[in-house]
Amino acid sequence: MIIVVNGASKPITAGSSVKVVGVSGSSNGVSGTGNTGVHGFSNSGVGVYGETSAGNFGVVGKAPNAGVAAFNSTLNNDNATYLASVCCAACKPGGVYVTSPLTKAGGGFQIDHPLAPAEKHLFHSFVESPDMKNIYDGIVVIDANGEAVVELPTWFEALNTDFRYRLTPIGAPGPNIYIAEEISSNRFKIAGGTPSMKVSWQVTGIRQDAWAKAHPMRVEEDKSEEERGHYLHPELHGASKEKSIERVRHPRQTQQTH
Predict the structure, then answer these.
(1) Average pLDDT in the 227-256 region?
(2) Taking Cα atoms as reference points, which of 28, 53, 52 lies closest to residue 38?
(3) Does the domain at residues 133-214 carry the CATH identifier 3.30.70?
(4) How do 148-151 and 133-141 pair as beta strands?
(5) From CA 252, how far away is CA 250, in angstroms rounded?
């Protein structure tokens, strides 16, 4: 084992599962330079482990391409993640799975433009609501009796509650179209139409599954005592960047990392 104390390495002959330990009171425990600054490998444990109790950073990575790159060798490195990348704060080529609530200022999708995929991007915003709202829609054809039944998935009522409806006749006015029977047994009935008329329908519901009940939406909440007077986006409120909430949540370190 080798212990690095205040920049000086001290080999120790005692057997240990840990091969390098870096300890410092004011600087870096371990600092590496070269093609690979620090390389850790383990057959059964952790390749590189960083920890601090002084409010600084456990692990710091700096590079012109990406500060930190993580790969999964068992998946042919498909599930890669890049932090502090040249394109953005975080880049995740593989899928992302989040088990806790995800909070954001805005969002949407970015794709190659369908009409000019080599030259342009296309952006859309997410559909958002103060509720955990689900949206379902479709088109149904009115039968000879002026009615139509819309069949929904078998899990529909288990997942949703507080239904809202919208009906739009296609091709001709349908002033008498109405919901004859509300959702029951994962279906609802439309009536008042004319035979062969197409009707566009939309139903919304609010999630009532176990996870949603355990994590209800908080539409409004007071800022903490430390966050008051600070903003998520201070520049949009005529305040200086020093008033950013990020400076409260993640205080900038006075120590320079290398």
Answers:
(1) 82
(2) 28
(3) no
(4) unpaired
(5) 6
Predicted confidence (pLDDT) per residue in 97-152, tens digit: 778 877 888 888 888 999 999 999 899 998 899 999 999 999 999 999 999 999 99
Q: List, edge to edge, every strand of the sheet that includes 148-151.
A: 148-151, 187-191, 178-184
Spatial strand order in the sheet of 90-91: 66-70, 81-85, 90-91
On the 0-12 / 13-18 / 19+ scale of CB atoms within 10 A, 174 is buried
As a 3-state breakdown, the chain gives helix, strand, coil percent values, each rounded to 5, of 10, 30, 60
**Maximum distance among all alpha carbons in the chain?**
90
Q: Whole-angstrom Cα distance, residue 100 to residue 131?
A: 17
As a whole number of angstroms, the distance between CA 57 and CA 67 comes to 13
- Domain spans in the chain, listed from the N-terminal domain onward: 1-34, 62-97, 133-214
DSSP H helical segments within 107-172, as ranges? 156-159
